[in-house]
């Protein structure tokens, strides 16, 4: 009896000071809070994932495949330079566009063909054939080298990524000729051939069926172009 009465005050003091029983309660509460937090985190993650799946399923990601065969981008001088063109070409890689014509009305692209070509090659992780005037080159592994044609190296490149750079003089000449041909065909009501080709005949000779046409310069505008070029974007 004395032992029981001797232990009672000790137990009472232990409870008052938050002893073993208090530690047990704190332990249970901490586990309960952790469980609630974990369940809430799982709920939020699952909910966000379901929303993303619903959005992707309801609205499939738009790609260049829905646009016309030849897409044109007109950059105003001072608005876009090498970084913007490189960014555009990297987007082309994601959309599997490999045959690209670059029209340069200001001398900006031809002057900077090396960083543009190397960035395009790095994004593709493939050799890129470059046509610059009468020169044919290949960009790969951070280097650009001349590629005499015909050559075995050129044949091995096959139908891989290609960039064709047109100078300001060549661009104006091909643009004017293509526009004259288009207007003449319209006047003659030749609907079968009545298309304006922004790449021009010279581009067709250098690069069959370009998938993208990029124009840099203040002298050219895509406004007023035929309706079949509805996928054209003018920047600047």
| Rg calc | 33 Å
Strand content: 15-25%
CA(first)-CA(last) distance: 97 Å
CATH class of the largest domain: Alpha Beta
GO molecular function, one term: transferase activity, transferring alkyl or aryl (other than methyl) groups
Transmembrane segments: 24-46
InterPro entries: UPP_synth-like_sf
Organism: Lotharella globosa
Chain-wise SSE layout:
Layout: H1 2-16, H2 20-58, E1 71-75, H3 82-94, E2 99-104, H4 108-111, H5 113-124, E3 128-132, E4 135-140, E5 143-146, H6 152-157, E6 162-166, H7 168-187, H8 200-206, E7 212-216, E8 233-235
Parallel strand pairs: 1-7, 1-8, 2-6, 2-7, 3-6
Antiparallel strand pairs: 3-4, 4-5
Descriptive notes:
- The protein has an eight-stranded mixed sheet.
- α3 (82-94) packs parallel to α5 and α7 packs across α8 (200-206).
- By secondary structure, the protein is α/β, with parallel strands linked by helices.
- It is elongated.
- It folds into two domains: 2-58; 64-235, Rossmann fold, CATH 3.40.50.
- It contains eight helices and eight strands.
Main attributes of the structure:
single chain; 236 residues; alpha/beta; Rossmann fold; 2 domains; eight-stranded mixed sheet; 8 strands; 17% strand; disordered N terminus; disordered C terminus; transmembrane; transmembrane helix
Short structural description:
This is Ditrans,polycis-polyprenyl diphosphate synthase ((2E,6E)-farnesyl diphosphate specific). Helix content is 49%, strand content 17%. With 236 residues, it is an alpha/beta fold.
